[in-house]
């Protein structure tokens, strides 16, 4: 894996994490217990920070980045990902905040200042515009994203199960690492 410092700030990775050797993790990036980062993920915590909560998984080809502090935006926009979050293949998460138990469908884009509350499904290819808030308990799809309907009970249950599935998978991968 490629862990790189930026201005002498190194990523902080829990010992129980799996980081694929082709992923690039730079700067102030924190990965909690049981996080998995899959092939070709780029996470750049250079001009702000990235925090990934326990049991979350970031799938192949996803880009994680932040927005710098400025006069017009004194806090900038860090990237905060809660616990039990599944981020599908080839997503773009930029300076947004995701709660817990979220599924971000493949190819989705979530932009600066957007907030995704707990227990949300975001459909593949969706675009969450800057500063948009997605309310807990719903399915969202489209470009720009729109609230479609409340989550079914089976979908809500799947949000946690997806995280469990990826913890099992990352544990299998960790057994292969020599």
Bin the helical content: 10-25%
| CATH superfamily heading | Hexapeptide repeat proteins
Distance N to C terminus: 13 Å
Mean residue pLDDT: 96
Count of structural domains: 1
Strand content: 35-45%
Structural class: mainly beta
**Total number of beta strands:** 20
Outline type: globular
- Ranges where pLDDT stays below 50 over 5 or more residues in a row are none
How would you describe the oligomerization state of the chains in this entry?
A: single chain
Number of helical elements? 1
CATH topology: UDP N-Acetylglucosamine Acyltransferase, domain 1
Main sheet characteristics: 12 strands, parallel
Rg, nearest Å: 15 Å
The level 1 CATH classification is Mainly Beta
For the record, the CATH architecture stands as 3 Solenoid
Order of helices and strands: EEEEEEEEEEEEEEEEEEEEH
Organism: Paraglaciecola hydrolytica
Pfam family, one: Hexapep_2
Protein name: Gamma carbonic anhydrase family protein
Question: What report would you give on this structure?
Answer:
- The protein is mostly beta strands and 178 residues long.
- It has a single domain (2-176), classed as 3 Solenoid (UDP N-Acetylglucosamine Acyltransferase, domain 1).
- 13% of the residues lie in helices and 38% in strands.
- The protein has one helix and 20 strands.
- A hairpin with a 2-residue loop joins strand 19 (138-142) and strand 20 (145-150).
- The radius of gyration is 15 Å and the shape is globular.
- 41% of the residues are buried.
């Amino acid at each position: 894996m490629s862990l790189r410092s930026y201005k002498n700030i190194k990523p902080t990775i829990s010992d129980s994490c799996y980081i694929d050797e082709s992923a690039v993790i730079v700067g102030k990036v924190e990965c909690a217990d049981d996080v998995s980062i899959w092939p070709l993920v780029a996470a750049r915590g250079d001009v702000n920070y990235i925090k990934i909560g326990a049991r979350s998984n970031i799938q192949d080809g996803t880009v994680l980045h932040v927005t710098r502090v400025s006069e017009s935006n004194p806090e900038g926009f860090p990237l905060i990902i809660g616990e039990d979050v599944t981020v599908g293949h080839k997503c773009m998460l930029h300076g947004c905040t995701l709660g817990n138990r979220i599924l971000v469908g493949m190819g989705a884009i979530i932009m600066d200042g957007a907030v995704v509350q707990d227990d949300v499904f975001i459909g593949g290819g969706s675009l969450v515009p800057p500063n948009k808030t997605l309310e807990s308990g719903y399915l969202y799809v489209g470009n720009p994203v729109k609230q479609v309907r409340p989550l079914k009970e089976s979908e809500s249950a799947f949000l946690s199960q997806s995280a469990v599935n990826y913890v099992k998978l990352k544990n299998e991968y960790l057994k292969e690492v020599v």
